[in-house]
Write a structure and sequence with these properties.
Elements: H1 2-11, E1 15-17, E2 22-24, H2 25-30, H3 51-55, E3 61-63, H4 67-73, E4 79-80, E5 87-96, E6 115-125, H5 129-150, E7 154-158, E8 170-177, E9 189-197, H6 201-206, E10 209-211, E11 217-218, E12 221-229, H7 230-240, E13 242-243, E14 248-250, E15 264-266, H8 273-279
Parallel strand pairs: 1-5, 4-10
Antiparallel strand pairs: 2-3, 5-6, 6-12, 7-8, 8-9, 9-12, 10-11, 13-14, 14-15
Length: 286
């Protein structure tokens, strides 16, 4: 699933990057990620530091909660050529979140986990709102292409100010419908992707600059978006593609090349009508 999302992004001009899993704590803080969130819950898995390292001032390290941190850090202290903007990057990485499952029933199971794979888009743009918004719109188009091909029922939300992270000036969430969550507060809808415009919040704190042609040095704007978070989208696919009669799950056409051409997975024990239906294969992979 991650490879499919990566392919959609790269076909639209996003350059793939392989980011590290370990990041410096101060880079994460500069991106707006702090040890505790607005609910007072632990967000970051920090690595233990020896006393010797602490005494010599070695920077603290942590497990990346998103590759956004590593991608933003690529340009820390750098000056970007204005002619190269926007710089668009996409990464597939393992991510680690300490707060998984901390908020009760609505975050249990595959919906929120401690470790997962995520495809993330990140961009530096010219330091003006129209240029940054154009890149954000491209990110939203990538998300729409992926979720539409997966056949998930979705809705798009412009998030209010109190739901923005420390760095974001604009945030758009896409929610998918989860039948198992219909009794919860949001009536079954749950976030599967988000996209944020951060203006110069991250670039200013990371000392990332660009020179405006004929003008002074400036801080580029940054934007980031989830192309696909594997466990959460997998949960949505399992729930929306479930067939109770045959005990099978439908495989979206776009994922069949990675599933040996299967149209369905699952099924009851062999010899039943359900298992026969699940084993039906097309003559060739579409």
């Amino acid at each position: 699933m991650g490879l499919y999302a990566l392919g959609v992004a790269t076909r639209r001009g996003w350059t793939p990057v392989s980011p590290p899993t370990l990041v410096y704590g101060h880079i994460g803080a500069a991106c707006g990620f702090h040890p505790r969130d607005q609910h007072g819950e632990q967000q970051v898995y920090a690595l233990a530091q020896s006393q010797a390292d602490a005494d010599r001032g070695a920077p603290a390290r942590c497990l990346a909660g998103t590759s956004e941190i590593a991608l933003a850090g690529m340009a820390a202290g750098a000056t970007l050529d204005a002619q190269d903007l926007p710089l668009r990057r996409v990464a597939v990485s393992r991510c680690y979140r300490a707060e998984a499952g901390a908020r009760g029933l609505d975050t249990k199971g595959l919906y929120r986990v401690h470790e997962f794979t995520k495809v993330e888009m990140f961009a530096w743009t010219a330091p003006d709102r129209p240029a940054a918004r154009a890149v954000l719109d491209d990110m939203l188009a990538v998300q729409a292409d992926i979720l539409a091909a997966l056949g998930l029922p979705c809705r798009v939300l412009a998030m209010p100010a109190h739901d923005l992270g420390a760095s974001a000036t604009l945030k758009v969430d896409v929610e998918a419908y989860f039948p198992s969550r219909r009794q919860l507060a949001n009536g079954g809808w749950g976030e599967v992707t988000s996209a944020s415009l951060c203006a110069d919040y991250q670039a200013r704190r990371l000392a990332t600059r660009t020179r405006i042609p004929g003008g002074p040095m400036a801080f580029p704007y940054t934007a980031n978006a989830t192309a696909l978070a594997v466990p959460r989208v997998l949960a949505a696919l399992l729930e929306n593609g479930w067939d109770e009669e045959t005990a099978t799950v439908a495989v979206p056409e776009c994922l069949r090349p990675w599933m040996d051409g299967k149209h369905k997975i699952g099924g009851r024990k062999r010899g039943t009508r359900a298992s026969a239906a699940a084993d039906e294969q097309p003559s060739s992979v579409p």
